[in-house]
Design a protein that fits this description.
The chain has 7 helices and 10 strands. By secondary structure, it is an alpha/beta fold. It has 2 domains: 99 residues, no CATH class; 87 residues, Rossmann fold (3-Layer(aba) Sandwich), CATH 3.40.50.150. The strands form 3 sheets. Strands 9-8-7-10 form a 4-stranded parallel beta sheet, covered by helices on one side. The longest helix has 16 residues. The chain is globular and about 50 Å long. The N and C termini lie far apart (49 Å). Bound molecules: S-adenosylmethionine. S-adenosylmethionine (SAM) binds next to strand 6, helix 6 and strand 8.
């Protein structure tokens, strides 16, 4: 079994679970390759005295990667300043998470409540892995979605990863507490916590 053979089934199973009450998002979840957006992540070391994390870096076509990525889990991708993409094998990180691929069921539930319709211009604040952005782009169309993240690396990585499966929405490296990119938006969804 390769990832290309199996991820579609796993994504459909995830959609059945997380979009049961938000059917307008079922197709987007089924068709979005989350495993291509989150190649590496951090897992909390159990019972570590300080907040310690170890790197998870499965091969793209491994069952373990497909199972974790389509298992409705939040995947922590950056701890403090260290993104899992930049960690060495066996490396550990210490501190608090600063970026993640948010829990798919939470994303879908927020999107359902957002009530975005085809034709709406949507702003996605906190690109992160690009997963929420990919769902928006799949359902509403690339030209109707803008995403911003304060971290230029995340913007660059999301742009390249989405483009690899044919999605080219506008993504900008911007601090969302400042001025937002034009145009005006019909809906804004934020998966960012901002200190007062
Ligand atoms: C929980 S993650 C977003 C997850 C993302 N929606 C996904 O589906 O993968 C939060 C993101 O917000 C970004 N962020 C934090 N403060 C920000 C700010 N002031 N402006 C824009 N982005 C910010 C972080 O860099 C981080 O990538």
């Amino acid at each position: 079994m390769t990832a290309s053979e199996s991820w579609g089934d796993a994504a459909r199973a995830l959609a059945d679970k997380v979009a049961a009450n938000a059917l307008e998002w079922h197709e987007a979840v089924s068709e979005t390759p989350r495993h291509l957006l989150v190649p590496h992540w951090w897992e909390r070391v159990p019972n570590s005295p300080t907040e310690e994390w170890e790197l998870v870096a499965h091969a793209e076509d491994s069952r373990a990667r497909i199972a974790a990525v389509y298992g409705d889990e939040t995947l922590v991708t950056r701890v403090g300043p260290l993104h899992a993409d930049h960690a060495k094998a066996e490396q550990r990180a210490a501190g608090s998470p600063t970026s993640s691929s948010t829990l798919p069921s939470l994303i879908v539930s927020m999107m359902h409540r957002l009530n975005a319709e085809p034709g709406h211009q949507v702003l996605d604040v906190g690109t992160g892995s690009g997963y929420a952005l990919s769902l928006f782009a799949r359902r509403l169309g690339d030209e109707y979605v803008t995403s911003v993240d304060v971290d230029p690396y995340l913007v660059e990585a999301a742009r390249a990863r989405l483009a690899a499966f044919g999605r080219i929405p506008r993504i900008e490296a911007i601090d969302a507490t400042g001025e937002l990119p034009e145009p005006a938006y019909d809906r804004i969804m934020a998966t960012v916590s901002v200190r007062p």
